[in-house]
Amino acid sequence: MASTSDIRNGLCIKYNNDIYKITEFLHVKPGKGPAFVRTKMKSVTNGKVLDNTFSAGHKIEEVRVETHKFQYLYNDGEFYHFMNQEDFTQIRLLESALDRADLMKEGEVVTIQINTEDNMPLSVEMPATVILEVTATEPGVKGNTATNATKPATVETGAEVNVPLFINEGDKIKVETEKGTYKERIKE
Question: Which residue, of 103, 144, 186, 187, is most buried by count of CB atoms within 10 Å of its CB?
């Protein structure tokens, strides 16, 4: 058993007969009253996000997990297929288990958390940033840059990302996977 002081991002816990992964947390110590921990948790079974507040010292049941590197192979419409980098075994996951499936291209190496009790995959962590090629975007209009102007661009995985006006088709860009936002252009 763990307590609220052990809460951290990525921690998997059992709560209400389901397994949740902590995505955000905040320890709050008000001037009046007891301390508490405000959390945002995502169910690993159905993908629903739940806001919950635990009082300080509350006991939580931690799920023991192992992390393994897997390579994304392909998507067959319903399942996403991955291969273990160590023993080359393959697993398949539903899209609900993935945070940003639209930013994942074939060959991408991700970290998958696996429940040690039943060897079931719990969640997929993508790298902090991915490099993707812009496949479609409108040309930027000169003189339209008085402010921090952006335009929508479609990348090779089919995702849409807002990019600055100077980005053109064929450019490679770095995208932050957590928010799905443009970070920088990659020069070759």
Answer: 103
Structure tokens at 55: 């009082």
The rounded distance, in Å, linking the Cα atoms of 183 and 142 is: 22
User: Considering 74, 97, 125, which residue would you say is the last residue of a domain?
Assistant: 125
Could you read off the pLDDT of 2-29 as tens digits, one per residue?
A: 787 888 887 888 888 888 888 889 988 8
* pTM, 2 dp: 0.69
106 contact partners, CB below 8 Å, separation of at least 6: 72, 73, 74
What is the per-residue pLDDT across 91-122, written as a single tens digit (0 to 9) for each? Answer: 888 777 777 788 888 888 988 888 888 887 87
Q: Are 93 and 82 in contact (CB under 8 A)?
A: yes
Tell whether 37 and 49 lie within a shared domain: yes
Q: How many angstroms separate the CA atoms of 68 and 124, rounded? A: 10
The answer to whether 81 touches 97, Cβ cutoff 8 Å, is no
How far is it, in rounded angstroms, from Cα 58 to Cα 3? Answer: 6
